[in-house]
What we know:
Bound molecules: copper (II) ion
Radius of gyration: 23 Å
CATH architecture of the domain at 3-138: Sandwich
Largest sheet: 6 strands, mixed
Mean pLDDT: 82
Amino acid sequence: MRRLLFCALLGLSLGAQAGRYELVIDEGEVRFSDGSRPALTINGQSPAPELRFQEGEEVEIAVTNKLERMTALHWHGIILPYTQDGVPGISFPGIAPGETFTYRFTLNQSGTYWYHAHADFQEQEGLYGPLIIEPKGREPYRYDREYTVLLFDWQDEKPERTLANLKKQADYYNDQQQTLGDFFRDVARDGLGATVKDRWDWGNMRMAKTDIADVGGFRFLINGRDAEQNWTALFKPGERVRMRIINGSGMSYFDLRIPGLPLTVVQADGNDVQPVVVDQLRLAVAETYDVIVQPKEDKAYALVAESMDRRGQALATLAPRNGMRAEAPPLRAPRLLSMTDMGMSHDMAGMDHGSMAGMDHSQMAGMDHSAMAPAGNPDYAAGSGVAPEPVDGGRVLVYGDLKAMRPAAGYRAPDRTIEMKLTGNMERYFWSFDGVKYSEAEPIRLKYGERVRFRFVNQTMMNHPMHLHGMWMQLDKGNGRFNPLKHVVNVAPGQSLEVDVPVDAMGEWAFHCHLIYHMASGMFRKIVVEAADGSTQPFYEPQPAAKKESEHAHH
Ligand SMILES: [Cu+2]
């Protein structure tokens, strides 16, 4: 990776810098403890090189496509003109084989972000990397050194095959005896109530989460290393170490902890939050959290990131010297589901499947047991409503803990509310909003300058990490002006979650579930932000340009 950094050119505002990267996307390989695998790479590596910028910088990133298919890179969480956002079919046509596309935008934010391919399943094949923006001003917390911790779920299988398998048979990756298919057959024959009665003892109705996770077969990585390869972060005892944690996975949520060290959370999704000390945090897919730890002893500490379904864990080490290794704790048992966890009363047993809280039995199938919120505590974890088991009585981060460091400017009541039902049909493996797949959906139209509240109503039994491009979501957990800014919010199974969006970016934007197989199978919408006067020319560059407007009038 070569970076050219040069001072302000004539005409740029004083102090502005321009950072340029040249990135080449190509076939390559990743090397694990048990050998190499073919992968997609950027400048010969996967994960892709860490890009570092300064707040205020004018960025140029030239991306060359050496693949035999179209590609595109998306700068996740970055506020920029929509034409630079990197979503084929929305922002631009994509980067054709052999072509170079140069992205240009100015960074008016700082913090921990990442970037990844936004074309078919290329992200899952290796095109993902960290993007760090250093702030102009002084940060409201101190640390002596910092590391990036990029989590990933590698699959040997080609993602296209995975999706095809899921479409053929939704429980393809189910390695448990009691399969989802059996459950459906019984429900079809006996109805949900009878099936549930039959399967679960009402006094102790529990089911292992792993019965119906949708995709498995992952190798969990930290900065591209598997557990054997043991990525290591060095420290001097007593130092404050900042960890920039990014969940770059395609499908996996992680419960992360460093046994013996409290985690002081200082940033969420790149934005400073009022520090909160926890023992464990859950990262939904595509979320980032920055934590500061202070290892005081001259010994190795294990960094443990268990996948939410407990099929595996990513492991790394914090150590005062290379070659040390903390003993990794064993994988904890999957959390069990109870019906009260799901907010359902025992009366549900008598109902037929069609009437269950408006869900049909196929939606029920996406059930993600480990993620169920305990009754009466709907926001029990970072993932909102997600409840990892307590660790030694330790604290688990919940969304309500996240309070912005600085109050939002212009905070006010929303102008209107848009409800989006998160829906799916597990048997046919399609995922959707309001029961409509992307291919059949109209775009969501917003007016520039309005403030829109989105109410996500999750009618499935899976977690969905909702990602909005181009604009922030203010996650409403009752902290008012201190509601944190997020680019991804997790909506827990059977739960609702509300965010406010100040609509401040013209153009066309993607809005989707960040689980890659859910996105690919329809859980995706286009958002069109139109001029406030209702003009029929929805798209123009954010920079005032009368000519551009007339050019786009035919839209
Ligand atoms: Cu989803």
